[in-house]
């Protein structure tokens, strides 16, 4: 069995990791941390886990206990993995970080967007961006994996086929994205209250969101040059889900975009290119580690519109983290992740 440690087990991504690992045939969670819930039984806090983790208790983070694990997931706010990763990497454990600590390759850019100094710039060379559909080979040997953010996963998977093939104008890309409220985490937050977020929808961070540099970094890699990206996130009254509507201009009208997407993702277990004309719904991916994509060219014009949906807590966080673990440990990539979504 693979010995697992989780730092930050009380947030939504932490409990989602536990749910997914409960059905993973080779995973055993040995350590789960919470400073505020030390000594509490996990299944008392999250009754959905009763019968799965009846003896597991929260403990305070301890590098010795975590370093004895084969894999340590960080499901913590930004900066926590910076502080602990160096010491943990001196053991034989692998780190899979769900926070943004190691996603941006430029530490100064990270500092500008996250409003604090980068705590471990010396580890950036080691870190691999954990988007398997792009970086699978590097993930196989990685010791430190930065799991992509939720909006960046939906946006990059929708845009990369066009940009890699040189079929969209990289100077003008629009990512119009909607997120469910769980994307804001479990912490107390006025905007996440039921009365503040239900029966209403709004854009936020139009001037600049911290996922803008992350999406741009991935798109630049796909293009091999600069990109002009406008990213507008919205909060929508649902618990889980990201819906990305992605716009660009087609530069070669002779190419069959449906075939292009189908070929690009033909061997990807967790990307579903839907039939031409489809409109993927967020509920079709709820609870599943899947990105469903549909590509449109309205009225056969110059504009390409890609629709990309994920569950922010699964393919947008914890599911993608488990997918990375499977790849890094040489396991079947789909272990623990092959269940279908919840419907309705
Ligand atoms: N929600 C989402 O959809 C997504 C979230 N993410 C990222 O995943 C990470 C986790 O998010 P989320 O699950 O929402 O939970 P939170 O960001 O609310 O994380 C809370 C967890 O981290 C622990 N924690 C907080 N501070 C520290 C610290 N200094 N040292 C050790 N542990 C600490 C908390 O436990 P305690 O304080 O008791 O120790 C708690 O268990 C974040 O970086 C988030 O941005 C990524 C993609 C999607
Ligand atoms: C709806 C909502 O608030 N979403 C979060 C993004 C989700 C997230 O946690 O992203 P990181 O992993 O990069 O922190 C936000 O806009 O800040």
From TrEMBL:
Q: Where in the cell is it found?
A: Cytoplasm
Every copy of the Semialdehyde dehydrogenase NAD-binding domain together lies at: 3-142
What is annotated as the active site?
150
The biological pathway it contributes to is: Amino-acid biosynthesis; L-arginine biosynthesis; N(2)-acetyl-L-ornithine from L-glutamate: step 3/4
InterPro entries in the cross-refs? AGPR, AGPR_AS, AGPR_dimerisation_dom, AGPR_type-1, NAD(P)-bd_dom_sf, Semialdehyde_DH_NAD-bd
Describe the reaction catalysed, as an equation: N-acetyl-L-glutamate 5-semialdehyde + phosphate + NADP(+) = N-acetyl-L-glutamyl 5-phosphate + NADPH + H(+)
What EC number(s) does the entry state?
1.2.1.38
Q: Which GO terms describe its molecular function?
A: N-acetyl-gamma-glutamyl-phosphate reductase activity; NAD binding; NADP+ binding
Give an example GO cellular component term for this record: cytoplasm
Q: Which domain of life is it from?
A: Bacteria
Sorted alphabetically, the keyword list is:
Amino-acid biosynthesis, Arginine biosynthesis, Cytoplasm, NADP, Oxidoreductase
The UniProt entry, under CDD domains, shows:
AGPR_1_C (cd23934), AGPR_1_N (cd17895)
Enumerate the Gene Ontology biological process terms.
L-arginine biosynthetic process
Function recorded in the entry: Catalyzes the NADPH-dependent reduction of N-acetyl-5-glutamyl phosphate to yield N-acetyl-L-glutamate 5-semialdehyde.
Q: Which family does it belong to?
A: Belongs to the NAGSA dehydrogenase family. Type 1 subfamily.
Q: Which PANTHER family match?
A: N-ACETYL-GAMMA-GLUTAMYL-PHOSPHATE REDUCTASE, CHLOROPLASTIC-RELATED, N-ACETYL-GAMMA-GLUTAMYL-PHOSPHATE REDUCTASE, CHLOROPLASTIC-RELATED-RELATED
Q: Which NCBIfam families match?
A: argC
- Protein name in the entry: N-acetyl-gamma-glutamyl-phosphate reductase
Name its species: Halopseudomonas laoshanensis
Species lineage: Bacteria, Pseudomonadati, Pseudomonadota, Gammaproteobacteria, Pseudomonadales
